[in-house]
Design a protein that fits this description.
The structure is a homodimer of 254-residue chains. With 254 residues, the first copy, chain A, is α/β, with parallel strands linked by helices. Helices cover 45% and strands 15% of the residues of chain A. Chain A has two domains: 152 residues, 3-Layer(aba) Sandwich (Rossmann fold), CATH 3.40.50; 93 residues, N-(1-d-carboxylethyl)-l-norvaline Dehydrogenase, domain 2. Chains A, B: It holds the Pfam family DUF2520.
């Protein structure tokens, strides 16, 4: 299968490397920024282009992996292609593509990607969707090459998943950052708290989070909660977060 | 060293097992509830007692591992002992003990403990404090047997650490639980999001969280944020959490 990759960000980069590792042919990398296109294309021996008119029209699969609000305009530049065009977005409707191209699909990897961190693609849940059963089968086969976890999901469920991912990934990471802020301002290193973060995630690999909640809020330990709030008296933003999340923990059914 | 353990909860249970595994002699387990005392004592071949007057007075070390607000009254029951009396609390001053007993200390394991999940004690940061240098050395040697990470920390820094732990552990776990709520209500299983949780924690083992933040808020992707807020329109509590944390991410220095 000949694949054209449109995008050069975090998702595109990790996807390109995973595709190459599985022997798939990414023939072109498109990015409006030629430097970025060349950087990624160079790593997977593909051609770099920065003009949508220079994109090959005879590829089998076009993967649009760009910011959500740029998907539509790139799809509009692929009107002539016969291959399957997919995006990798959690929140964008398949119709954004199918209004522009002949065959549309979604290829959404549910993972957090940073260029500075390698990921094991085999364990990334891949959520697929397509406008017809034949194309869905193509995506299923490709997804099964890349990962052990392939989910066929409609757009509504994919959006729910993306929302849940913000709660399960983006927000926890931000809370790690706030913890680091508190530590640094008191001359303590983030290293000291890493085992706790690892164990907190590890616990929910085999348990449901509501069954392993610990801390002052779940114990209704108002004395500790009040001590913490008073330690944060010069940080009203952190105080608000502490209060909001503690209240939410208390309201959780046990 | 002969050790008396006062408490039978999550921390006491994991500590008892770790002490036994390293060949330390826990000779007694005290709990006001005899059933609980016997349950834990039976696992480590110790005597179970539910009366403070029955606690041995000639042990070397007394570890009080109970809810914070119960520490003082238990310490008051140990006035006669000559051994070192420590608590395992992140937020309780050493003075709560030293006002009651001859030799006081703190032995605070920075970890989240649930009885249903085993932990590798070797990698748990142990924070120690004592009223004199000799006792501190005793704690340091014991801590070094149990863990590779021993920190000598005064009460103020220990409290900061405990506060940071709420942000790095208790709150993220609650956010996992909210993610699960969103998934379940839409017929999706928590399993699908576990690889994302694992990777989110794994990323900060070698990076600082502020350098690997992903998601709509850090991209200032208002369109996705608004879609998510509208998906939560029937859940004002989740909407508030989403809004508060997204705003906080946007305000984070990059």
């Amino acid at each position: 299968m000949n694949i054209v990759l449109l995008g050069s960000g975090n998702v595109a980069t990790h996807l390109a490397k995973a595709l190459k590792a599985k022997g798939e042919h990414v023939v072109q990398v498109y990015s409006p920024n030629l430097v970025n296109a060349k950087l990624l294309a160079g790593r997977i021996a593909a051609e770099a282009v920065n003009d949508l008119n220079a994109v090959k029209t005879d590829a089998d699969l076009y993967i649009i992996s760009v910011k959500d609000d740029a998907i539509e305009s790139i799809a509009a530049g692929l009107k002539k292609v016969n291959g399957l065009v997919v995006h990798t977005s959690g929140t964008t409707d398949i119709q954004v593509l199918s209004a522009q191209v002949k065959h549309a699909g979604v290829f959404y990897p549910l993972q957090t990607f940073s260029k500075i961190k390698e990921v094991v693609f085999d364990r990334i849940p891949l959520c697929i969707e397509a406008t017809d059963a034949g194309r869905l089968e193509i995506l299923r086969q490709l997804a099964a090459k890349l990962s052990e976890q392939v989910y066929e999901l409609g757009g509504e469920k994919r959006k729910v998943l993306h929302l849940a991912a913000v709660f399960a990934c983006n927000f926890p990471n931000h809370l790690y950052a706030l913890a680091n802020q508190v530590l640094q301002q008191n001359g303590l290193d983030f290293e000291i708290i890493r085992p706790l973060i690892a164990e907190t995630a590890d616990k929910v690999m085999t348990n449901l989070p509501e069954n392993v909640q610990t801390g002052p809020a779940v114990r209704n330990d108002e004395s500790t909660i009040n001590k913490h709030l008073s330690m944060l008296k010069d940080k009203p933003a952190l105080q608000e977060i502490y209060q909001t999340l503690s209240n939410s923990i208390k309201l959780m059914p046990k």
